[in-house]
Write a structure and sequence with these properties.
- The chain is of the alpha+beta class.
- Helices cover 34% and strands 33% of the residues.
- The chain has helices at residues 20-29, 31-34, 47-62, 108-123, 138-146, 175-183, and strands spanning 3-7, 10-14, 68-73, 76-83, 92-99, 128-134, 150-161, 164-174.
- Strands 1-2-3-4-5-6-8-7 form an 8-stranded mixed beta sheet, with helices on both faces.
- A hairpin with an 8-residue loop joins strand 4 and strand 5.
- The model has no long low-confidence stretch (mean pLDDT 97).
- The protein binds coenzyme A.
């Protein structure tokens, strides 16, 4: 089972169906801030919706298309981070994430993404990773920026989020960029 210690007290772990209720509770109390940027929030009305999502991403993992994980801080589930289905033909992947407001601003997401990039490049042998963020989603854009991704462009009106089109910034990093970035870490 995919599980990584990211830092003392921070762990990412493959989501399990039994966690649906707990994960729904976190998403539900963050509904207003999450729905601004994440198109699935309005369709997620009950723990059962989360359970079906978890079953889908477990299938993804067992088909070798990458893990979607729960983020655990001091043993408490507080968000998710993971890979969208890997494009093996091109050895490309893309990352997505969200976190409980109580854990925002502490570097949890940046460090979880770093652990997933280590996994993607060192263990899976992927070549490129992408993160797509709304152009006005500054907190989200700051994550790939901090990790050394390049801002590669904007795909206009690329995502329908509840009631409006959102332009997305494409952030990309190549395996060699990540190795260079890691070597330069203090
Ligand atoms: C986008 C989102 C996940 C970013 O979360 P975040 O907590 O800001 O990101 P991080 O965990 O990387 O935290 C970064 C902050 O921690 C600080 N930090 C502290 N220790 C740190 C460390 N060891 N490493 C990196 N940053 C650290 C950074 O300086 C930064 O502080 P700042 O916000 O004052 O600039 C969050 O805002 C969210 O859930 N938003 C709603 C959903 C969403 O938009 N998802 C993304 C869709 S594309």
């Amino acid at each position: 089972m995919f599980r990584r210690t990211v830092a003392p007290g921070i762990e990412i772990k493959l989501l399990e169906a039994a966690e649906a209720k707990a994960l729904f509770a976190v998403a539900d109390r963050n509904r207003d801030r999450l729905r601004r940027w994440l198109p699935w929030v309005d369709q997620t009305r009950a723990a059962e919706d989360v359970r079906l999502f978890i079953l889908r991403v477990l299938e993804q993992y067992h088909s070798n298309l990458g893990p979607q994980t729960g983020i655990w801080v001091d043993g408490v589930l507080c968000g998710t981070v993971g890979l969208h289905p890997i494009d093996w033909g091109n050895r490309n992947c893309s990352l997505g994430y969200w976190i409980d407001s109580a854990q925002e601003g502490k570097g949890v997401i940046t460090r979880c993404c770093a652990a997933l990039l280590d996994f993607a490049f060192d263990e899976l042998g992927l070549h490129r990773a992408e993160i797509r963020c709304g152009t006005a989603n500054q907190r989200s854009c700051a994550v790939p920026q901090r990790l050394g991704f390049s801002r590669e462009g904007v795909v206009r009106e690329s995502e329908w989020v509840n009631d409006r089109w959102v332009d997305l910034v494409v952030w990309g990093i190549l395996e060699e960029d990540w190795r260079r970035k890691r070597r330069s870490r203090p």
